[in-house]
Amino acid sequence: MLAFAIIIMVIYTKQDAIVQSSIDYMNQHHKGLLKIGDIHLAPFENFPDISIKIDDVHIYEEKAAEHPILDVKDIYLGFNLWDILSGNYDLHSLLVEDGFFNIVIHVDGSTNLANALAAPDDVEEEDDPLHIHLQRIELRNLDIHKLNESNMMDIETYIHQADGGFKTNDQEIAMHIDSRFELNVMDNGDTTFIKHKHFEFHTDLILNQKTGRMSIAPSGVVMEHGDFEIQGDVDTKNDMDMNLKVKGTKPNFDMLIAFAPEDIIPILEQYRNAGKIYFNSTIKGPTTGNNMPLIQAEFGASEAFMENTDKNRLLDDMGFKGHFSNGALRDLTTMEFSMTDIRAKPEKGKITGSVIVKNFVEPDVDMSFQADFDLNFVAEFLNLDDLDDAEGLVHLEMKFHDIIDLENPEHALKDLN
């Protein structure tokens, strides 16, 4: 115990020098600014590594900037005990918790983070006193925003917990990552249908250090209660060019319910359901700067049913084929969504139809439905208590094709009368 206490005391006396030398290096050799608060010794936080805890870490895009890119309450730097004693400051583990990270993609395609890390023209290269050979990284309660100034699309990823392990040789870096996070997408300050989506992600990655190509082994992704598998590769030296496949099959609607708006999911989950459900998607193309990859998805159902068990009402023989793409321009103007071959069989009658939507800025909607059903069945199946006494058979035929003015949607609705 006495020897351990002496070792801890030696490290305690060195902690300021370890951290301050690296901060001085970063501020001299990068255009951005790094500021920190107090420094503490935390010997057991990343055990068996010895950790140095840094409070109130801020990174700015430039020396005179007012608003930080990074604002984090605590960062723990983990070192091997004997490395520190020998003066070799080799960072083995990193724990970041409680804060935010605001990444901005400027109109010219540059990012505030890249600008902060850029080297000043008048500074000569020197070796950083802090060497980084990470074996473990952990993130807790970190709110990450990625704002694209050209279209004001803001992607927020709130990381509840993320753990990564690393193994490195001369050719490759192998990584295993487990994470839990929440995803929100805002368009010009307004929420989209991607709101409060909860994810779990478990994957193994291999990065070829020479080519920059990162391979993603078949990996599990959970969104809400939907289970998916993702695999492919990313060219990290070529605009983070992705070639990914996402797929899933399930004997119920959980996978498709996961894409529903937040307030609709609890309603859909009230119904017992089953069927042959599939989802297949590809993501291809560069993603850095103002680039957006091509996203295409095929999904559908067959031999499916949904049952309101409280009212003992069954919608049987359900099926459809679905398609989604963000189109040639990879934006809302070329986005397409369709559900065709829609079919379902209530206790009396049948339902068939299709809907195709093109251009999500000025939606071009082509929709047709034919339905025969009992009004009382619909009221009870949908839990429409105000229509409990409704009776009678309904025959409905509808065809609608128009461009919807989102500012005045009631104009298009008149055509349905």
Structural descriptors:
417 residues, mainly beta, 20-stranded mixed beta sheet, 7 helices, 20 strands, 14% helix
Could you describe the 3D structure shown?
This protein has 417 residues and is mainly beta. It contains seven helices and 20 strands. The protein has helices spanning 2-29, 81-85, 112-117, 254-257, 265-268, 375-381, 410-413, and strands spanning 33-35, 39-42, 50-60, 70-79, 90-105, 131-148, 153-168, 172-187, 190-191, 197-208, 213-223, 226-235, 241-250, 272-285, 294-308, 313-325, 336-345, 350-358, 364-374, 393-403. The chain has a 20-stranded mixed sheet that branches. Strand 18 (350-358) and strand 19 (364-374) form a beta hairpin.
Task: Briefly characterize the structure.
The protein is mainly beta and 417 residues long. The protein has helices at residues 2-29, 81-85, 112-117, 254-257, 265-268, 375-381, 410-413; strands at 33-35, 39-42, 50-60, 70-79, 90-105, 131-148, 153-168, 172-187, 190-191, 197-208, 213-223, 226-235, 241-250, 272-285, 294-308, 313-325, 336-345, 350-358, 364-374, 393-403.
